[in-house]
Design a protein that fits this description.
Elements: H1 12-21, H2 27-31, H3 34-49, H4 57-71, H5 79-87, H6 89-94, H7 107-122, H8 128-150, H9 158-171
Helix pairs in contact: 3-4, 3-5, 4-7, 5-7, 7-9, 8-9
Length: 172
């Protein structure tokens, strides 16, 4: 025999009593712990050293987590792995993967071209001059490569030029 579910009605006064008894913890303190941050740093480092398919879930997840930490202004510990991504061979190669028929950037292109660049552009860092010194040679090399190899490409270059704006902004 199937019994009917028991309905429990909680009065509004009871709800306020329950919620006032519980300690208030911020979302940050519950989920964004030091251990989690350490794992995120390792994951970003991993993307700067290992190649994955353009639609690998790592790019989407890490992109969103970097965006979250950026919004919460937890940025100082993420700067080193982000700079490593921008100095990596994958950032240098990513512009060659944009096809003239492509309408949207894939997750790998979004992470390297948009999110990493945006992270540097959006925030002020204590070691700003060191970051500039690290990134400048890479930006010059990538720009040279783009001019020599990619600009002669035919077809719809709107997405390519949109991607280049992030590169140029970080370069300046």
């Amino acid at each position: 025999m199937i019994s009917s579910p028991i309905k429990t009605i909680v009065e509004p006064a009871t709800l306020s009593l329950l919620s006032s008894d519980l300690p208030l913890k911020k979302y940050q303190k519950i989920f964004l712990t030091e251990t989690f941050l350490t794992k995120l740093i390792r994951a970003i480092d991993d993307l700067s050293q290992n190649d994955y398919s353009p639609y690998h879930v790592k790019y989407k997840v890490i992109d969103r987590l970097v965006r979250l930490y950026s919004k919460l202004n937890i940025i100082d510990t993420l700067i080193d792995p982000i700079v490593k991504c921008l100095c990596s061979k994958f950032y240098q190669q990513i512009f060659t993967t944009i096809e003239s028929e492509q309408f949207r950037l894939n997750p790998k292109q979004l992470f390297f071209i948009y999110q990493c660049s945006h992270f540097i552009i959006q925030h002020e860092f204590l070691q700003q001059e060191q970051i500039i010194n690290l990134l400048c040679p890479t930006m010059i090399h990538v720009t040279k490569s783009i001019i020599e190899n990619i600009l002669p490409m035919d077809g719809n270059l709107i997405l390519f030029f949109k991607s280049m704006t992030y590169h140029i902004v970080i370069f300046s």
